[in-house]
Amino acid sequence: MSETTGASYAAAGVDIEAGDRAVTLMKEWVRKASRPEVVGGLGGFAGLFDASALKRYARPLLASATDGVGTKVDIARRMGVYDTIGHDLVGMVVDDLVVCGAEPLFMTDYICVGKVYPERVAAIVKGIAEGCVLAGCALVGGETAEHPGLLGADDFDVAGAGTGVVEADGLLGADRVRPGDVVVAIESSGLHSNGYSLVRHVLFDRAGWALDREVPEFGRTLGEELLEPTRIYSLDCLALARATEVHAFSHITGGGLANNLARVIPDHLQAVVERATWTPGPVFGVVGELGAVPREELEKTLNMGVGMMAVLPRESAEVALSVLADRDVDAWVAGEIRARESGAPAVELVGDHGVGA
User: Fold this and answer.
1) Which terminus in the chain has less CB density within 10 A, N or C?
2) Would you tell me the crossing angle of helices 72-79 and 85-97 to the nearest 10 degrees?
């Protein structure tokens, strides 16, 4: 009888040693993404957070959110740049938390790969940790899963979940919005992490552009523009809420400006947003023109240059803009809240953008 070799996890494509090395490489970055309430370090079966810190709240409400970054991971993979995609992941999660006024406390991540390349996994975690620092929250744990046979060796995806806290009587939302309020638009850093299926279809499949193509409108390569990280607004929004009366925030993600802003507009009111108050960045115009994408389709897919919106009293607008300017965040009054007529949409976009839209 011939000698045979028994099956093993390694033979099935899972490299436990590579996973251990990835954990070793990421530890220094995770240590930087901490808060005083974090108990213990990396390596436990669960992340620990000292909830006694919540005693200072009269009625603390925990907020939770989970998200990924969609097909933007394909851009990172094709460019071989892995240390920015984590910023996108953090932004997509914590900026959903802050819309209700919640302070992000901690995050966990999930990285799924076809094959563990330790340096690549560590670079992804580095980006997540840096994003947590920018958001003021801790990275308390995560999971890296190797799925050979299901994913190609270079394929990967990321997801994350976050928890925040808000005082019950400070909860922001539609019930606070009043007629006469203004809508303050806060500039995005670009496409953020939504609409990349449309963007990739237009730029790669239809136009045949390469990632290393120099694009004069962008002042850099196509790949660099597409990989621009999502802006993380949580600390800016919290500063705004402390400095002035904010009634609601809206994170402009999948579905575009109108659909997301509508989520914080009461049934009897309407937000009227003036397109003429801003000019979307060049990437939005390029995608629209190359793909002959109708404006309505662009606006329901991409953020069109606005990553977050705040609804607040008109008399608070000047202070709000000043606070954001002091934090190097571009913002402007883009619209107002009115009584809604029968049959009217919750959000109406009116007028035309400036040159470049």
Assistant:
1) N
2) 160
109-135, pLDDT tens digit by residue?
Answer: 999 999 988 889 989 999 999 999 999
- Give the residue among 104, 122, 105 at the shortest CA–CA distance from 113: 122
Residues 154 and 190 in one domain: no
The structure tokens listed for 163 are 């928890």
- Residues 156-180 have pLDDT tens digits of 999 999 999 999 999 999 999 999 9
CATH number, domain at 284?
3.90.650.10
Report if residue 52 sits inside a domain: no
Q: How many domains does the chain have?
A: 2
Contact 147, 185 (CB under 8 A): no
Q: What is the CATH number for 20? A: 3.30.1330.10
Buried b or exposed e, range 294-328, using 16+ CB within 10 angstroms? eeeebbbbbbbbbbbbbbbbeebbeebbebbeeee
Domain that holds residue 242: 174-350
How many Å apart are CA 68 and CA 88, to the nearest integer? 8
Distance CA 129, CA 181 (A): 37
Residues in the chain: 357
